[in-house]
C-alpha cells in the first residue's frame, strides 16, 4: 500500500533549541494518542516528514531516529553539484549524512524569490536520481493570474515536462516520486483549493506522469493553507495522497492533529 505523506515545511523558522522542544512535544503527544487508542495504524499507513532548516537536520535526526519508521526527514532544497566552490549550498550527500530520505525540489518560494528556473530544477531532479536513497518532493503549481485565465493545466504540464526531463534519460524505472501540487495563490493565504478542484489537478498530474514516465511509486500531495479544519476533506479525495503543510506545521500539537485527522 502507498503510504500517505503528511509533510511539514518549517521554511526559515526555528533554531535547534526550538526544534528540540517541538519534537519533544510531538513525540509526547503521539504517545498520549497511542495510549488512548487514537493512533492505531497511523504509523503503518502514513509517514510524517519534516523539512526542518538545514542547520537543524542532524540534530533533528538524533531525536527522531527511534521513530524512524514513521517520522522522516527532508531537506528544504539541495544543490545539484556533488561538491565544490558553491558558497551557501548543500549537496545531496550532505543531507543524506543527516538522515534525510526526502528533498523538496522547486518550492514556489525558491522559484519566485530566488529566481529558480525549471531548467535548474531539472538539474536538481537529475542529481537526486543519480544518488540513491533520497526521494524528491517536486513542487509545481500555478499563480493567481494563471488560474484566473483557467490555464493551470497547461502551466503545470509545462513545469512537469521540463522538471521531469531527467526521468526520460534514466534507464530503468524510477523507484519513487512525490509531486506536491501547490497552487501559489493558496500558499500562506488561508485560501485553500476546493478539494474537488485539487483532486482534478492531481488526477491530471497522475495521468500525465503515468503516460510519460516510468515510476514505481507515485504520490501526489497537496500544499497551500492546509489546516486541521480542511485536512479531512482534502484527504477524502482519491487522488490526494498526502499534504505539504507550511504555517500550520509550526505548532507540534496542531501538526500532530493534522496527521491524525488525515487518517481519520
Ligand atoms: P502554507 O505553506 O501551508 O503555509 O500555505 C505551504 C507550503 O509553502 O509548502
- How far apart are the termini? 17 Å
Return Rg in Å. Answer: 17 Å
Order of helices and strands: EHHEHEHEHHEHHHEHEHEH
Counted up, domains total: 1
Taking the sheet with the most strands, its summary is:
8 strands, parallel, barrel
Discrete helix count: 12
Assign a percent range to the helix content.
40-55%
Beta-strand content: 15-25%
Broad CATH class: Alpha Beta
Q: Taking all residues together, what is the mean pLDDT?
A: 95
Order of strands, main sheet, comes to 1-2-3-4-5-6-7-8
Bound small molecules, by name, code or SMILES, are: 2-phosphoglycolic acid
CATH topology: TIM Barrel
Count of distinct strands: 8
**CATH homologous group name:** Aldolase class I
Would you identify the CATH architecture? Alpha-Beta Barrel
Amino acid at each position: 500500500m502507498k503510504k500517505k505523506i503528511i509533510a511539514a515545511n518549517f521554511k526559515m523558522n526555528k533554531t535547534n533549541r526550538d526544534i528540540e522542544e517541538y519534537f519533544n512535544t510531538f513525540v509526547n503527544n503521539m504517545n498520549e494518542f497511542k495510549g488512548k487508542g487514537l493512533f492505531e495504524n497511523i504509523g503503518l499507513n502514513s509517514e510524517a516528514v519534516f523539512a526542518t532548516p538545514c542547520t537543524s537536520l542532524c540534530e533533528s535526526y538524533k531525536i527522531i531516529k527511534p521513530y524512524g519508521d514513521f517520522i522522516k526527514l527532508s531537506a528544504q532544497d539541495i544543490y545539484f553539484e556533488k561538491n565544490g566552490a558553491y558558497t551557501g549550498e548543500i549537496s545531496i550527500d550532505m543531507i543524506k549524512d543527516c538522515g534525510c530520505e526526502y528533498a523538496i525540489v522547486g518550492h514556489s518560494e525558491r522559484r519566485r524569490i530566488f529566481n529558480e528556473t525549471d531548467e535548474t530544477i531539472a538539474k536538481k531532479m537529475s542529481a537526486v536520481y543519480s544518488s540513491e536513497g533520497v526521494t524528491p518532493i517536486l513542487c509545481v503549481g500555478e499563480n493567481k493570474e494563471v488560474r484566473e485565465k483557467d490555464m493551470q493545466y497547461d502551466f503545470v504540464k509545462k513545469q512537469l515536462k521540463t522538471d521531469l526531463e531527467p526521468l526520460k534519460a534514466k534507464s530503468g524505472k524510477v523507484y519513487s516520486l512525490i509531486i506536491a501540487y501547490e497552487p501559489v495563490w493558496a500558499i500562506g493565504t488561508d485560501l485553500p483549493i476546493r478539494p474537488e478542484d485539487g483532486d482534478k489537478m492531481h488526477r491530471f498530474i497522475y495521468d500525465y506522469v503515468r503516460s510519460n514516465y516510468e515510476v514505481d511509486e507515485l504520490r501526489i500531495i497537496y500544499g497551500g493553507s492546509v489546516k486541521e479544519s480542511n485536512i479531512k476533506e482534502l484527504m477524502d479525495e482519491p487522488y490526494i495522497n498526502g499534504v505539504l503543510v507550511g504555517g500550520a506545521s509550526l505548532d507540534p500539537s496542531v501538526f500532530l492533529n493534522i496527521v491524525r485527522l488525515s487518517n481519520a
